[in-house]
Amino acid sequence: MPHRIYMDYNATTPPEPEVIKAVTEALQEAWGNPSSNYIAGAKAKAIINHSRENVARMVGGKAEDIIFTSGGTEANNLVLHTAVEHFRKNCRAAEQGEAHSNGCTGLPHIIISNVEHDSVRLVAEHLQRDGKADVTSVPVSKTTARVEVEDVIAAVRPNTSIMVRGDREICQRIKSLNKQHERLRILLHTDAAQALGKIRVDACELGVDYLTIVGHKFYAPRIGALYVNGPGTRTPLYPMLFGGGQERNFRPGYHMRSTKLYLEERLRAVFKDRIRFNSHYPGSDNLPNTCNVSILGPTLQGWRVLSNCRRLLASVGAACHSGSGNRPSHILLSCGVPSEVAANALRLSVGRGTTKEDVDIVVEDLRETVQLLEEMN
């Protein structure tokens, strides 16, 4: 079998050797309950505290702002659960004369975009289906592939409890609304799973109340965390689970960006006008390591190309959505990518160890695969 080249780093990353070493040592020496007083427990507590400080530093927060979770899905669920509870408790307090009543009618209102990860979108849809929340899905612009600020502001209602996908400008506008007298506070959340370890992320500069962190996207174990700006004090946080009482710098993206640009350059050189880059939008940023690309042709659907590649290991989109079969990505369609182009999409995401030699091999593998599929037809 030829050596395979991994370009699916947005799905998951291999843990760094120092990560494996740290986890192995912890399993051997710090296996105790961190709430206990014996040595193995004390070591576990010290490691957790140190890890919390490291994660906080990575996102510009404080150690007490970090809540460890099982992954990004739990973190996103926890945020939306909190938004619903926040609304209910405010309404209850208003009924008892302990808080203002403006906005405390009907159901809590959640604003998301139409390109959310399933761990946000499906939770919001579930809450709406169960009659626990109203949900507005703001479409992204087909010109910029971004949520436009004015579209978000237009969606705000008196009973809006949370806005998901907050960038700096949206956060500033929402915070201005929050300053209005007797208005229900709108909570702000962003899912930074794909950003961390690739671009600089500072929760305080963004102005968000919550920020989702996913370890296995940046060479760490398959664990998650949630940044909360002052959990339980400045920002509400309500548990979904009850029981034990636990849980009360990364390299810049320059190398990965240069590797991605070289990948795009080679794809253009080989496939010329048959190539379509699905993440190039004027005025919009994209991840420094990610190339979402379609090779145009009636037999070159993304899944078909990848299943015939001898060297390339990649995907057509988020691994979490693999159950959707061979349908085009709803995110690409929402961004205005034509259906026949979206069907051919490949998501190529390079990592820290990806070399130009790897890129050359992958592009040649794609060239041979395209030729094979077209000859078979």
Automatic annotation (TrEMBL):
Coiled coil: none annotated. It is found in: Cytoplasm, Cytosol. InterPro entries: Aminotrans_V_dom, Cysteine_dSase, PyrdxlP-dep_Trfase, PyrdxlP-dep_Trfase_major, PyrdxlP-dep_Trfase_small. Its cofactor is pyridoxal 5'-phosphate. It comes from the Eukaryota. Keywords: Cytoplasm, Lyase, Pyridoxal phosphate, Transferase. Its main location: cytoplasm. The keyword DNA-binding does not apply. GO terms for cellular component: cytosol. One of its GO terms (molecular function) is selenocysteine lyase activity. The keyword Cytoplasm applies. Catalyzes the decomposition of L-selenocysteine to L-alanine and elemental selenium. Homodimer. Belongs to the class-V pyridoxal-phosphate-dependent aminotransferase family. This is Selenocysteine lyase.
